[in-house]
Amino acid sequence: MTDLTRLALPRRRFLQGSAAAAAVLAAPGILRAQEKPAELIVRAWGGAWGDALKEGVGDPFTAATGIPVRYDFTEDNEIKPKIWAAVDQGRIPPIHVNWDTTTNATISALRGVTVDLSDLSNLEGLLPLAKPVGLDGYPIVNTYAYVYVCAYRPEAFPDGAPTSWNVLIDPKFRGRIALYDDGIGFNPISVIAGGGTVADIPGNMQPGWDFYEKLRINEPLLGEDADFTNWFQNGEIDVACTISVNARAAKQNGIDVAWTVPQEGCKVDTDGLWIPKGLPTNEEYWAKEFVNFALSREAQEKWCSALGLPPVFPGIEPPADLAGDPSYPTTEADFAKLVSIPSPVLVENQPIWFEKFNEIFQG
Amino acid sequence: MTPMVELDNVTRRFGDTAAVREASARLERGEFLTILGPSGCGKTTLLRMIAGFDRPSAGRILINGQAIDAVPPFRRSIGMVFQRLALFPHMTAAENVAYPLKMRRFDPAEIPERVERYLELVRLKGFGSRRPHEMSGGQQQRVAIARALSFSPDLLLLDEPLSALDRKLREEMQLEFRRIQQELGVTTINVTHDQREALVMSDRVVVMDAGRIQQADTPAAVYRQPSNRFVASFIGMTTVFPGMVAEAPEGIGEIIVGDVRLPARLPAGGLAPGTAVDCGLRAEQVRVVAPGAPRPETTIGGLVERRIFEGDRLVYEVRVPPLGNLTLMVFDHDPATHAEHEVGARVLLGWNARDLFVFPKETTENATRQETGPAS
Amino acid sequence: MTADAPRPPAPAHRLPLRWRVMDRIEAVAAALWPAAFRRATPWAFLAPALLLVGILLIGLGYVISDSLHELNPATYRLREEYSLGNYAAFLDRPVYLLVLWRSLLAAVLVTAITLVFAFPYAYVMVRTRSGALRKLLLVSLFLPFFIGQVVRAYGWLIILGKQGLINQALEGLGLPAATLIYTYPAVIFGLVQYMLPFAVLMLAPALTAIHEEVELASESLGADWLRTFRHIVIPMAKPGLVGASVVVFTLTLTDFAMPEILGGGTNDFIASTIYDMFFQLSNPGLASALAAVLVAVGSLIVALVFRVAGTGTLGLRSGS
Questions:
Q1: C268 touching A (Cβ < 8 Å)
Q2: ipTM of the complex
Q3: Strands B287-288, A258-260: parallel, antiparallel or unpaired by DSSP?
């Protein structure tokens, strides 16, 4: 498969900049060689996330190539089995590009349903973060990092931002705290908050489970991205562990929300893009062009600024409101304050952690 | 002795219409009374008020001398057999019969014996463990009776329970009801539109029409001396025709119909000569007089217009030219004369003077049949 | 007109269009489905249902087959070899039994509460003499029926939330705000509200079948309203009650949206767990095992209900 793609896709060096991209993509030679599909379907998260992708990547891509981009807001978890089944049964998968968490993308890569992206021209010079860990080549490519911050309502914290995750087990906030419903983003942090160290992960998760037991008594709400914004907006919660993007989106919508990185640190993770196997050759070609474009400086700058996340393209200035923000790590020192768990560890242990998490919180 | 039931000017209105108007009647202990009338006459409304499912708009109902308006049905000592029997399908016959005993807090030790006794009374010994749907129509009737009587109510109400049965079974059950009623001496009110049932079963018959009681009397009196045109025409097959009083002594007088004067029985109190009246002649009281046979009091010639064979009798429609071409209905029960008179034949009709009823012309108030309440 | 021998002579007058159309349709039907096929007609009508059940059974077969293979986390595919590992995992992890138990308890509670509300509702709807009231009851029943479960659940969030209508009213009265959502009772409440129309629609025909005379008979025999209800109406409405119970019970047992939305994440039902297994953890083996257990438990309970309630339920009585 990889060989075939290589044959069909001679390495090209375009998309150094947007002007070049437009010029090269419009070249008649390429039009003949690779017929443009009627549209590209990109699975995305909705809300602030989808808006950012459209503004930063989709629209400029369409402007440059003339190919319309359609967004499919199917849950990331629900598109996964559909793609898997399509690949298994030799059908054309339902989407061209999947925007996915690195952990889930890695699982799909392990399953062998992703197209290798090693030949993308824009991979060169990206931060090491872009390269998936523990996988050969680029079955997926990471596009930015993000931090599961401690988001809070300043009104509930008159003395300033919470300094420790212990705030989650403070009875004062009983029923007014929130986590992701699979514990994602807090699982490693709970170990540290419970008295363990990063070195305990994944070998000794017990301090984390102990912390969760205490947290459970404090009656947290468990939800997904959209829920956190709702809950802050409706005054249901005072503090949550959520991706900074959600907190920032809420703040930009006029909701009084702030965020911080407590002393125990926050989990930092990455998202990426991947292309399912089984697409017609020309569609796969343009899907790769889309991903390649998403890695260009122009796209990275716009997309990641809109999200408020540090891109994998080096040297891009953070948006004004996030300069110096701990949720926007750029330097080694910034990353040192955060907790990063290698993807292979996550892939292997996430299901186990999830079951344990469920056991505690559904109990 | 106070009557068992007394209706004192009972009226029931539904919106603008009155289903029952100013009904007054008394029912003595042990009596079997039938309320007879066409559907919509108000008889069922009256029965429902006695049972307690409905309340009079005006007037009072007394049972044992007590006004019972405020007493709910379940505190009245009244057994009722319903039109659809209303047996409880999820209970056996015995459980149906035991139901009122349990609800009325009889001594549990007494209940099985009582159930047994009443099933025996209705001749269903040994059928106690059957469910209603495992029994015949007649058996179901009997269960319904036993259930309505097992708690020894003061009063038994029958709401046309026999109307759904075929004729043969119905006639059998009429006698059965009467037997049981007499055996127990229970005061009973029966409601029906079947005149035969009313005459066969009752001590007294109340004829109702348009929400009013038209006549209350013994079956024989209701049949023989109907008090008005409605009663006369509702009971039996009666030809009604207009006439005028010619001579009016008490008892038998004379009326003018068409071109002829006919002797007739005038109502008590008499009527002034020249009064317009309605006359009635029952088909079963008119005979086709065979030549040479003894003649009844009145005879008149006519032409057979139609002949209907009904097995046990022949029905003739006979046109009588002297009576203003009136067509009289005549029943011929005499097998000897059957089939003798073809359509078009001349026949001699005869009847006795007392069988020709005469009533004053109906006043408008009595004639408003259409103004009746919901269906009975 | 051609001389078409076997045909009856055409009437001189013109038949109404509808008759002629119907005659044509009948002629076509007779040509397509001759009388000789008539014995097969019932089967032809049954075919779509059989097909549907067949597909369902095939699906169930796949579920059971998947449940007998464990996941290989290195490839995220089910292993070739058969094993009962998934069922062992189900029994091993108390959380699954707990969530199943929570779903079952909810199904029982929701069924009981729904019937308590639906029965009088259906009774009044069937018995009222006021056409206007009956219409009002019917409309209020159907209106929420047309609003999906998810939308309704979000509606409850608006009403019951911390800053929702009720808490605003409480605040206005100077009372402390109450926690009304994201709790188990909130899930039960949402489900009851969702199930009510189903139950009423199942009960109404059963109550219509009870002639009013039967209730009057009971009263005349000495039972007050309450005892008539207990001894006559409820036993006679049993087919409707059993039908409504089975429908509400199974719908609740397998419900996903209400606990998901009104439960705040900590009150999942077994359907949510199956979803998580399948989609979030990509473990179709364990998901299938849980699904198979759910189907088995649900079927067993429904079978038991029919067994206890007798063959007469749902009006499937022979004879009578």
A1: yes
A2: 0.82
A3: unpaired
